[in-house]
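Appendix B: complex inputs.
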Amino acid sequence: MASITLTVNGGARTIDVRDPDKPLLYALRDDLKLKGAKYGCGLGQCGACTVIVDGEAVRSCVMPISAFAGKKITTIEGLGSPEKPHKVQAAFIAEQAAQCGYCTNGMVMTGAALLEKNPKPTAAQVKDALAQNLCRCGTHERIVAAVVKAGGARG
Amino acid sequence: MNMHTSRRNFLKSTGALFIAIPFASHVTAQGRVAAKTVDPAQVDAYLALNADGTATIYSGKVDLGTGLRAAFPQIAAEELGLQIDKIKLIEGDTLLTPDQGPTSGSNGIPKGGMQLRQAAATARQALIKLASEKLGKPASELDAINGEVRPKAGGAGVSFASLVTDKGFELKLDTKAPVRDPKTHKIVGKHVPRPDIPAKATGRFVYMHDLEVPGMLHGRTIRPAVIGAELVSVDESSIASIPGAQVVRMKNFLGVVAPDEWDAVRAAKMLKAEWKGGGLPTDSAGLRDYVKAQKVSETEALDKAGDFASAYASAPKKLSGEFYWPVQSHASMGPSCAIADVKDGEATIWCSSQGTHRYAKHFATMLNMPPNKLRVHYLDGAGCYGMNGHEDAAADAAFMSKAVGKPVRVQWSREDEHALDPKGPAQVITQEAALSADGKIVAWHTTMRCPKPTANLPTIPLLAPVEADAKQAKGIATGSLSSGGKPPYDVPNLLVEVHWLEDTPLRPSHLRAPGKIGNCLAVETFMDELALAAGKDPVEFRLAYMSDPRGREAVERVAKLFNWDKRVEPRRNGKGRGIGYTQYKGDETYVAIAMEVDVSADGRIRVTRVAATHDCGQIISPDGVRSQVEGCILQTIGRTLYEEVKFDRNHVTSRDWASYPILTFPDVPEMKIELIDRPNEPPRGAGEAATAPVAAALANAVFDATGIRLRTVPFTAARVKSAMAESGVKFG
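Resulting structure:
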């Protein structure tokens, strides 16, 4: 069986690959037991599976694992922890920006990727960046407030 | 203390739900956990005081992302007299928690929370009595504070742990045990952060989807392209290339299992099967007519006052209208998922059901085993807003596990979730009302057409047992669909009726505020029509017919919060404001919502500003209530503007987020919410009430902006544009 080496959260991880079309999401969740990224649609429509690859927010449910050799992947677990949260994660906790929280991974990762490019986004810029991320519970206002807060700009 | 060693260890580990992998070491058979009472009449069913000074509370109601996980400990901590961080909560486990009924109908706090409060009050009373003997002081001079019973006047106290024996309280829950005076509350009504959010924000929280059980296989169901089709043949060789993949077939139930999840996904796609027959009696385009033509099995008069028929007949000014609410999906962000381990005549099921106790019985019937051989654990799923596919996924997993003799995890695909989740049914609501010559409402008649709740009907709600032709317990109720048809106003001649329909094309379920958003839309837009006909401003007109001071306050305060501009005639310049008001279920939470919209020439509606007042009596968890109100408003704006399940004569065709759009970030308006706290009133629910007036306020705002009455949901740009073209509406 072929294998592929990925760089995940700063470490090299080798995964056996039977099907090179297997989406990255399944490798992260099932092979590496990194369950933070969620299966939402498998269609790249909702954003629940978002990870950061070389600085860009990427939908791991549709991209085949073979496309990630040599790239740096950060998952939500690598972003921060409950003890040492990333500033976006800390802001989500402070703003209580989750109801069911199933979409939170995508919101946090897309928010973190946005801050890398635009460190102090306005609320309108955050809404624009999250336009393709879906939340069903209606937590949008808090999510926007959290990302704005993490950047430190005035909403 | 009242815990056997085995149970203490067990609880220690289940308490680790937020960390790492829970339950992995507890795939135990039913009898291996020491008995604990789950009798809802007993104090020990709800709480246990532990030797280390902590308390464990057991709740049959579960947190569905609504914040009950913060609120229940607040209630127990306050009433017991214990620090909140010393409280552990176990939710929904059918072996350990009392059956308090499903977490539905916004009854988590009003029913579940109040049972817990009463259990804790009974416990406090008992602790004080025990301490009184120990300290030689009268009970009236003692109070329970921070885990001790102490003299109110000061001095040494005794710890709770030292007062309770190994056997627990062994007390009946005293429904009359005095509860603490709200004036003394230190935890209830204050902000307590939700304990699950740090783990959720950092990817550590273990959702149902993230749980792994040793030795588990991954299962996927294969369902026909035509609803109700029969399985003719399966070509097992079509998945021979996938390692370890097996077909599970029980009559028309078809699944595959494989050790690797992606392999299971591939196998489900590759498996060749032949189906025949099936179909639906109408498509979504024809559903409104279908509902109107559907046989009425029963007509029920829900409310009557005076004599509607004669008052209407003799009135000088009459209005009427017909409203339509479409089929909608829970559209949960994550598809339904469950794990089942069925072997040796016993079963353990991990599921995100809002009614683990109810469905434990269901699953036992379906698996043909006694209920005491089956245990259901609750884990958070993606939010559901009533019964979605969680229980179906569990039934799928249970059949597959039984067939292969190993634990099986089933996760639906997005397409299946959109297609198969039981849905909020369509409603047709008609209104007739009349005004007197001087513009007073003299008669009002609401008629609702709703599918009869499936309770007590042979309708079988879960998919897998139907397909496998297995026994199934009786159906579920679809959540008082007919509530909210009564106008919340003083009307002298009133008739509120529901025509219960025999059937509806897709499986009906309770979807957040079942029926009530559509009913409130009909009642509240009609109230606006009456206001216009009477030549009155909509807020002023409503207040003239409201006698309940709490309702009046909600409306008056929302008008102020919104900065309501009084006006009789619609503005018709593309910008408008509207109001909607409800008292949820007729006697629960009061909500008033005012809304501002922009309607563009292409028919697109943008909600720009929302103000809401919300009175749910005593507030336990203010941020929890606020978060629910925000969610109710935003979700319902999306339901009103965009959502309609589309289907042809074969099956649901809106199977993804492109064909079933929901609210997105650019749609989010500015929101102002005022919570009206009434500490001396009983707490009412907050999970649904604020959904009810949203569609009405939106429709009324669109009328102000355009002069067009929207009576058919969703208010899509195409629908609004064609209505504007028909009426010759132009802006600018």
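Chain B touches chain A through 58 residues (CB under 8 Å).
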